[in-house]
């Protein structure tokens, strides 16, 4: 929701939230009544429309896909660490090892006892596991695979006291997340009406009259954490240790509390020893607490951020181009560069976008940088592109082309000697324009599955796509000049889709839970569609676009317009009395 280049380059650490500990398997949720104009602006969505974050399986099918997202974030901002939030569950140790190998800087283990804000009861009942189980498994697996020194382990989910911190440290945690208890320290009264926008102390409300009742001050939170620190200090002294670092990973210091186990009948026969018996003994080997850098030197983990290897070399080469550097520095002028690309070059364009955003923000760049790449691009080509940047790929793209695009232009066309019909062949992979917030995208060929998921501002054209096109879309326009797969428009709450349907089977592919369909019924809608297709032809030389424009009066009858309720009164859907209305086409 609203992830932009400027957002990414100003961060000290970026977190990939694989799931929430208290409701694993679901994305975050913000009820419609809480989505004010301000919130909608930040999230690039519509006021009053419920926001549901796409769960990870929309763009992450395997550990390789997660590794690619980590790579993207390390490319756009080389100085920011990347944290991956995992849910405490059986088998988390294997996943944690994969995340460590994928060059994450922090792994966060989230337990099932944390707060969930505005989540439905059905989402949080009987969900999640205790953080203790997930933390010990992850810590043990990382140690056993010699990966523990590559990541920092963080834990959260119902942590409230200094005793929780001490026990978490002994089970392997180096950092600790406080959520609910910190909210209470600053004034939350646990009224449990987060989802209703009626919080009596203004903590979780967007209503100004309620926000004025917020009683908290920073000093309240500082005071609470000073007490937590004092409790930790006292417990460490009682154990005979001077620093918290001395007890990290020391599960051998833990033992079962007989009084707690015998407190109620149903726990009297339970032995906890086996849960923690497999944790390696680190009493004599504390090397995992520091990271190893070049030359075998060991340094504190907080001083080290993983950086991409040769897969970002092309990005670095483009960024070092003196002409490009001058345009960015002067914030004026134009430059055109042509470079070869191959499929080991990943996240190309992200580093350049980050450099621009770091100086000029999301929309302050006034120059023009045009880069033509020739060959087969690796994953995430054109990620986080912003206004003033034009990327043209002559060849083919992989998955995630245009991920998080914020502006500018991405054009993908087949090479001149390609021996296939563009309109019938895939030219870009899956999950293109995932989370895009603006810009223009044109592909002279078909796209894979999940095209335009969570698109909230990009104007995109492709010549067909796979399943789940326009899922969770909240803005922008998507034009498909060929057939698409099933489940079109699922969860779509904003934006417009135009779909070319010469075979006559499109209607059965639409998910009608939210969206509606109609033929081109307004002059405004027709004008918008035609202008976008004309632009597509100018940029790509598309034969399919040429055929449609050459016989427009006949071909336009094959288009369906897909729209959600929030767009039902717009000019392109319902028409406008003022025929001169300004229509956006890019």
Task: Describe the protein.
This protein has 586 residues and is of the alpha/beta class. The protein is built from 19 helices and 19 strands. The strands form four sheets. The chain has a ten-stranded mixed β-sheet, sandwiched between helices. Strands 1-4-5-6-7 form a five-stranded parallel β-sheet, with helices on one face. β10, α15 and β11 (368-376) form a beta-alpha-beta unit. The two termini are 21 Å apart.
In what range is the share of β-strand residues? Answer: 15-25%
Low-confidence stretches: none
Adjacency order of strands in the biggest sheet = 10-11-12-13-14-15-16-17-19-18
**Backbone CA Rg:** 26 Å
Q: Structural class, from helix and strand content?
A: alpha/beta
Number of E-state strands = 19
Number of helices: 19
User: Can you give the mean pLDDT?
Assistant: 92
Fraction of helical residues: 25-40%
Largest sheet: 10 strands, mixed
Query: Could you give the distance between the termini?
Result: 21 Å
Oligomer: single chain
Approximate shape: globular
Keyword list:
alpha/beta, 586 residues, 19 strands, single chain
Helix and strand layout, with pairings?
Blueprint: H1 5-9, E1 13-17, E2 29-30, H2 37-43, E3 51-52, H3 63-76, E4 81-87, H4 92-101, E5 106-110, H5 121-124, H6 131-144, E6 152-156, H7 162-170, E7 175-177, H8 180-185, H9 208-211, H10 218-239, H11 258-261, H12 273-277, E8 290-292, E9 298-300, H13 313-319, H14 322-330, E10 334-341, H15 350-360, E11 368-376, E12 389-396, E13 406-413, E14 438-443, E15 456-462, E16 474-480, E17 494-500, E18 516-519, H16 523-540, H17 543-550, H18 552-555, E19 559-563, H19 571-574
Parallel strand pairs: 1-4, 4-5, 5-6, 6-7, 10-11, 11-12, 12-13, 13-14, 14-15, 15-16, 16-17
Antiparallel strand pairs: 2-3, 8-9, 17-19, 18-19
